Amino acid sequence: MVADQRTNFLYTVAGLTDEQARARSTVSELTLGGLVKHLAATQLSWLSVIDGTAAPEVDWADLDPDGNRMTEGETLAGHLDAFHAAADAFDRAVREEPDLDRAVTLPRYPWSPPQPLVWTVRHVLLHVFREIAHHSGHADIVREALDGASTTEQMAKAAMGGE
Predict the structure, then answer these.
(1) Cβ(121)–Cβ(115) under 8 Å?
(2) Is the pLDDT score of 33 beyond 80?
(3) Is residue 22's pLDDT more than 70?
């Protein structure tokens, strides 16, 4: 399901120029390139939770203020490469995980509750699925407002042997 949701997300950003990927099409700060960048970083962040290398605490200053935007000098191709590499690493870790019910402690964020949060690896996997699905919806709205392209139409075209 995670791979399927990633594919749907990638249909939404297919065929964009860097300029389009950088453009805001709604009142939100979100850009399509920024969403690709964010989802790559999200998968790597959760991978670090699974493999035990995550920082125990993340402060506001540690967060990328441009994490949902593609800035000048960044390219969509570069963000897509990072997205694919992060997806491959995340999927490999999940496939190699001997116990999806293994408990992992989440980093403490400014929005975390005071007590430490402990999830299973399975919960992390489901959370990553939710993150990708959540941001796929954002991307679909941003793309439709940008140029009228419909993710559903692109998926149908691909299913019928088109691009």
Answers:
(1) no
(2) yes
(3) yes
Taking only the tens place, the pLDDT of each residue in 125-142 is: 999 999 999 999 999 999
What is the longest distance spanned by two Cα atoms in the chain? 51
Q: Which residue has the tokens 């690493």?
A: 89
The 8 Å CB, 24+ separation contacts for 124-130 are: 124/46, 124/49, 124/50, 125/2, 125/94, 125/100, 127/46, 128/2, 128/42, 128/43, 128/46, 128/90, 129/1, 129/2, 129/5
Cβ burial, residue 68 (10 Å; 0-12/13-18/19+)? middle
Q: Which residues sit opposite 119 in a β-bridge?
A: 104
Q: Which two tokens stand for residue 13?
A: 């950003």
DSSP states along 100-141: TT-EEEPPB-TTS-SSPPEEEHHHHHHHHHHHHHHHHHHHHH
